[in-house]
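Lab notes, practical 5.
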Amino acid sequence: MSETRSIRPEARSERREIDRDPSVENVPAAFERAIDEGTERCTRGWLALVATGAVGGFDVGVGVLALLVVREATGSVLLGALAFPVGFIALTLGNSELFTENFFVPVAAVIARRVRMRQLARLWVVTLVANIVAGWIVACLIVTALPDLAVTASEASADYLDAGIGTTFAASALLGGMVITLMTWLLHSTQSMPAKLVAAYSLAFVLVAGPLAHSIVGSIELFVALIGGAEFGYGDWLGFVSFAALGNLIGGVGLVTTLRLVQVGGREIASEQAVTEGDRHG
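Output from the prediction step:
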């Protein structure tokens, strides 16, 4: 991996004053924050990368456990969706990551020329695999500890499988990627922890209330059903996660990240790129 230097604070242009709540960043400042964090994510060592992705899978697995427990007890999809965001609160407070949370932040670092595309690809692949493996382990624990939840998981996973791979599924996966990338942007647009938690809770609720096709959340639900003896197989799961991950990626990068970068503006992006080049040759 090529060495990536950190950008000296004095090398950056002065941030604009904010004429509203000081806890809320302006767009260029939020972009700078995303670049810094994206650089850190893409340049982690292999062990740290795997551990962060695994913890992210465990965290969202807790959310799936909460969703299934409440849905099994109440029979209500919406009440289960209200319980699920505990997993995303854990993600926010614990600084763990899901594959779908890496569609804006590290892409910003690539656009600023702080990291290379191969580093971004490594982040995506390792995080996705670590999320899935950790999610499968959580699913095993859920079925072992609370076997009755396997029936509820089968009912929940039917929402993903019954539609098949078509226009409906594609639109659902695109929306899933959009929702989580919007959450990522909001988390980097404020320094207020209460605001971060509201963003994490509300958008996690939107994700599962639908439910929208999300490569990791859906995989964990499918794993619980599979391990509990559902009639479909791992081939069905593989088809789901392949198309869901692709749809999430297109929705997150193509429909949200691209427009946010347009919002940031070409001048700000060019300035960050110039600072990167100057720092490397300085």
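Observations recorded by the TA: The chain is about 75% helix and 0% strand. Residues 24-281 form a domain with the Glycerol uptake facilitator protein fold (CATH 1.20.1080.10).
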